[in-house]
Amino acid sequence: MTGRQATTTLWRPTGPEELALVEESGRRAWPPRLPEQPIFYPVLDEEYAVMIARDWNVKHSGAGFVTRFEVDTEFLRRYPVRRAGGRTILELWVPAEELDEFNAHIVGEIRVTHTFR
Fold first, then answer.
1. Could you read off the pLDDT of 31-86 as tens digits, one per residue?
2. Is 94 buried (19+), middle (13-18) or exposed (0-12) by CB count in 10 A?
3. Can you say how many angstroms the Cα of residue 59 is from the centroid of all Cα atoms in its chain?
């Protein structure tokens, strides 16, 4: 009898263009980073993701979305948790060149949990 794979819940604040590319993947993968984006950074706290989507994405692109997704916990151990500010402002920094491998370890779909306009 096999147990369920241990996963970690991550969130990602995103704008409409990135979300459209996630939808094109069947909600299974994040799109490649742009040349000026050397790091993909999912966050570990939903409130932090809400703050970025609401306060930054809406201002810069007219809409902000918070997504939630699960990633294989064992795989995530390679990425140290980075504190980007206060106690709950925590991120994982995934180098752009590792994003395909990261996407391969997403379990299930990437889901939108909050929408801001």
1. 999 999 999 999 999 999 999 999 999 999 999 999 999 999 999 999 999 998 88
2. buried
3. 19
